[in-house]
Amino acid sequence: MDDEWWPPETDDYFLYEVLGKSCRHLTRKERYLAYLRTDIWQKKREEALIRAERMCEKCHTSRYLDVHHKNYHRVGGDELPRDLQVLCRPCHRAAHVTVDQRSAIIESLRRKDSG
C-alpha cells in the first residue's frame, strides 16, 4: 500500500475525532488502517455486505469476505456504494495485482501451456 491510499486533502480532524489523538504523524497507510477500525467504516462495510447478499461479487462464494475500495477518492466515510466491492480474500488479492504483474502471470501461464 503506498501513499496514494489516503487522499491528501482528507481532513486529519476526522481521524482525530475518531481516534482521540493527533494523526499528523501517521503515514497515509496508517491513516487508512486506522479508518478501517472506525464505526463509520464498519457501517459502510456492513451495508456493502448486505447489498452483495454476503457473497463475493466475482466468484459468488460466501467465505472470507472483504470489502474492497475500488478507488480511494472518497475514503474517510464519504464512500459511495459504487466505490465498494465485496470480494472473497483470493479475489481481493487479485484485484490489487498490478497490470504488469497480471501480464507476467499470463505470460508465465502461456509458457506452461505451450511447454
What spatial form do the alpha-carbon principal axes imply?
globular
Order of helices and strands: HHHEEHH
Q: How much of the sequence is in beta strands?
A: 5-15%
Low-confidence stretches: 1-10
Distance between the termini: 35 Å
Q: How many separate domains?
A: 1
The count of DSSP E runs of length 2 or more, i.e. the number of strands, is 2
Count of helix runs? 5
User: Structural class, from secondary structure content?
Assistant: mainly alpha
Rg value: 17 Å
Largest sheet: 2 strands, antiparallel
Percent range of helical residues: 40-55%
Strand arrangement in the largest pleated sheet: 1-2
Mean of pLDDT: 79
Brief overview:
By secondary structure, the chain is mainly alpha-helical. The chain has helices spanning 12-19, 28-35, 39-51, 89-95, 99-114; strands at 65-69, 84-88.
Kindly describe this structure.
The protein is mainly alpha-helical and 115 residues long. 45% of the residues lie in helices and 9% in strands. Strands 1-2 form a two-stranded antiparallel sheet.
Keywords:
single chain, 115 residues, mainly alpha, two-stranded antiparallel ribbon, 5 helices, 9% strand, disordered N terminus
How does the SSE layout of this entry go?
Elements: H1 12-19, H2 28-35, H3 39-51, E1 65-69, E2 84-88, H4 89-95, H5 99-114
Antiparallel strand pairs: 1-2
